[in-house]
Write a structure and sequence with these properties.
Length: about 400
Amino acid sequence: MNQKKKDRTYFAAESGKKPCKEQLFSMGLILAVCLFSFGWILFGPKETYSQEENRSLTSSLQWDLSKISDGSFQNSVNDFVNDQFWGRRQLVELNADEKAALGQKDLSGNYMQRPPEGGVYLGKEGHLYEVLLPPDRTLQKNVQALADFAEETGLPFYMMPVPSGAQEQAEWLPENAPSYDQTQALSLVQTKFKGIPQAKVLNLFDTLSLHKSSYDYYFKTDHHWNLYGAYEGYSVLTKAMGETPIPLSSYTLKNQGDFYGTLYSQALLTAQGADCFLLPYYQGEENVTQEANGQSRNGLYWESYLNGKDKYNTYLGGNHNLDVIRNPKAKNSKKLLVLRDSYFNSMAPFLADQFSEIDAVDLRHYTGDLSQYIRENGITEIAAVYSIKQLCDVNISRRLG
């Protein structure tokens, strides 16, 4: 019998061989796991929110078969399965830990979609950093609209573009990590505001750098600046306005426990260390009131958020379309309008001790006539406090036209 015949005879014998007990057990176990997982997804308890990821989960299927042709039905099924499978949290964390152990330094990015979505860099000193991608035309539209608005109002206008931690702490990024240079955005802002006599562009790049002092100005697990960074921003703004900032030593800093921010929610590394969440208290804090969503309350800290994951919302209760902050015992009677994103929220306690009234507008949600608001409320000065990342990503220009 030649070799080919022997091989055919051998494989025929093997193919006719009955599975052994070990094989049957393995096949049964795999089948049981699949059936259990399928049953869990369909009939198990549904989670509606992930505290760790700080987002809502897809908790039900929309049986709209008319959406099959465009793929949206299949996408909804995929989202539902991904969000509701058994042991999901542990497997997501295990996946992140495995990637980190294998040396991957960029987690959770999606560069295939358009526009691409940057991930999270695993930096030095326990820092997580958002990946900074080159901006599209959104940045130019926003800066141009803000410059036009500053010129139109004729009031003193202070433009404060806030750099990201990945920009100011570039030395702690992974080696050779691509990152958009936000000084290009600063140059654009300076160019657009040039020639507007009552406007000033405030440069925080040197102020917030690693070499400024022994303070770390950014959270390790969140994209915002921390209390020390917010104080530096407040200090630069008040000096530009001809005021003397209140020394940080005049505040009592109270530790509110561990904080895991938005970047942790994207990375979900089990070994990631927490941030320390501090709140500043000044002797005049009891005089400050905040009006938001038509309701007035004493103080600027919404303590209920201290019991949850998103502690940054303790400042002002998060982002509202309009916050009116009043302090009758403040140093001066100026009325300051602030066009802002969430970076302003942690600055608010410092500014509230300086100005009798601050009207903070979030253009992502505000739909009123700003020019009319300025006239009717006696605004004397305007500041725009925006992270450069926000100016690159979210179009606010339509609210200023």
